[in-house]
Amino acid sequence: MNRSFFHRVFPPPKFLKMPAGGIDISDSSIHFAELKEGKSGLVVSGFGEKEIKKGIIEGGEIKNIKELTRILSSMKEEFGLSFVNVSLPEQRAYLFKLRVPELGYGNIRSSVELQIEDNVPISAKDAVFDYDIIKEDDGQIDIELSVFPKSIVDGYLDVIKDSGLIPLSFEIEAQAIARSVVPYGDNGTFMVIDFGKTRSGISIVSNGTTRFTSTVDIGGNSLTKAIEKTLKIKTNEAETIKREKGVMSREENEELFLTMMSIVGVLKDEINKHYVYWHTHKDQYGRKRPKIEKVILCGGDANLSGLPEYLSTGLNVPVDRANVMVNVNSFDMYIPEINFNESLQYATAIGLALRNT
Length: 357
Prior knowledge:
Blueprint: H1 5-9, E1 21-25, E2 29-38, E3 41-51, E4 57-58, E5 61-62, H2 65-79, E6 83-88, E7 94-101, H3 108-115, E8 127-137, E9 140-149, H4 150-162, E10 166-172, H5 173-181, E11 189-195, E12 200-206, E13 209-216, H6 220-231, H7 235-245, H8 254-280, E14 294-298, H9 307-312, E15 319-321, H10 340-343, H11 347-353
């Protein structure tokens, strides 16, 4: 994927282009990815994963600072990490749209701060926020605002710094994913599903901006446990069956089919609910929302056989697995070391790494 004409004609000075890895921290694992300039453009210079034991992070909140710091320190040494962009858990974020008077860019932050308490259940002094400008019109500026409790951000900041890493930015997972799976310059509207191990993120990206996020407590581990319980087998055997069979048909094993559908069906219902709501409700300014053009799947369990086909039933749009390299480079120019199925679990990390390109 070629980057902007301006970037190519007027590249930033080398001292402003420090390589930075993307660190995606979830309740069950840490993924990292790093990009660098190659002869044919951007290439993946490193990637890796570390599992996190249950209880270290719960619902996006760090419960065991010492152990998480140890894991990140070991990753720093093993992979030679230094500067990093880090994900923040979207289930702890508040994301909403706001309109402020056009009083000059220097006054936007103070104007936003005055309105935080009207939109989220935390005080401005206890919040950390950032925003993206969507458009300017008739003396007004529409912005997309993301707000986090300061205690959550401080916890991640302390762990990153104590592990010896140098944080350049923090960002909501959904925003990083959008950067990796939606082609640069595509102003269409997409629903993005991050089907992870312990939960699934549902977001809607429109005109290059993340407009909505939601989290469902359903992930690939739920399917593994269901297979394990139904067939009375070990976890590793259940995981193998899940990978080999995917979303199976009723004819193969009706009992197992009904068990898996009771889980995947909930995710499908959530997707359908958000899809219908987006199209049947106007935005906060009374304007009709743009039509969702495609549903994009990513995450560690997005490669399950039959999943896109199953989720697409009842929707009037295609459901496809993400190409998380679409903004890194063209496959005609570069074949990454990470394979396609594995790359789906690195969507957030690659999106974070793309911040500095």
